[in-house]
Task: structure prediction
Amino acid sequence: MALLYRELGIDLGTVNTLIAEGGEIVLSEPTMAAIDVDEQKIVALGQEAKDMYGRVPEGIQVMYPLRDGVIADYEVTERILAYFIQKVCGPVRLFKPRAMVTVPYGVTSVEGRAAHEATFRAGSREVILVQRALAAAVGAGLPIGTPSGNMVVYLGGGASESAVISVNGIVVANTVRVGGQRLDEAIATYVRHKHGLVIGETTAEELKLKVGSAVPLDTELSLEVQGRDQVSGLPRKVRVTTADIEEALADPLAQIVSGVRATLERTPPELTSDIIDRGMMLCGGGSLLRGVDRYFTQVTGVPAYLAEEPVACLALGAERVLKQVELFRRFLPPS
Ligand SMILES: Nc1ncnc2c1ncn2[C@@H]1O[C@H](COP(=O)(O)OP(=O)(O)OP(=O)(O)O)[C@@H](O)[C@H]1O
Ligand SMILES: [Mg+2]
Result:
């Protein structure tokens, strides 16, 4: 019998949303909306909204409706999801897709419910939630069906998560509400304190991507950025180096590590030896930071390696979990 409905893996993120169908990523856009505040109307969604960021007149607000990995503005999230689902499936009426949506480990039932409802009302026939770490493990093809320890560390935009998975379920896990956005804030604060220069979030992120590193580099990188002098209020430039960013990131990275440590400490000894042998798999946008694998290896003593498709593996895994949901159902979050 032919497949009756389409099946989507939706990785709903604070910064980016990815959708997988048929084993491929079919959509990847910022989880952003541009809103006309006075008229309470949506002006643009997704990539179009991001392109407006910092370039719009007063009265239009460009925003992220998720905060730290969970929905903060329900209505806007639903609109964005409806827009993305339509983009992938065409105008859905009769043939609504089934969807599997990623949520952070340990979401409250209210937060899980919100993700479920928003995706359902956005035009899905059935919605099932999956923890990010589990989706990532399945997407990366880790042997999680066997009774053995598999460790995933997810470094997202709004939150980070570490989990040990065995026999298709999460054994121990931990979410820390510190992600890439918090790293950008730390960079902006550092530049303000050290150079007396106020820079925007976009500039802070640019510094992280272009010169940032979690560990010292053999060849330092540097970038000149423009900001506003904290005292005079006038535009000024400074050169920021890799060492600067490394220092700025030390604190938020340590917070993420404390979550990873907590997971390792609670891991049953039977699984710990597998994890030491196999290492921990890093994924999420934050895993693209230079030296992050070396950093995690150093501070935890467990070898860390980057997933093959560190960003796409969550959406791809979500779709795969959906296709064999009976195997996983009793380990998925309630909604
Ligand atoms: N090369 C890079 N180096 C460092 N950070 C990066 C790099 N590329 C992307 N990022 C960061 O990754 C983050 C986005 O990651 P991702 O798309 O996994 O998050 P998300 O799914 O939107 O968030 P969450 O799952 O926490 O809700 C951003 O903060 C971005 O700055
Ligand atoms: Mg994510």
Remarks:
- Residues 11, 13, 156, 284, 314 surround magnesium ion (ligand 2) (CB under 6 Å).
- The domain at 180-248 is CATH 3.90.640.10 (Actin; Chain A, domain 4).
- DSSP finds eleven helices and 18 strands in the chain.
- The chain has a mean pLDDT of 96.
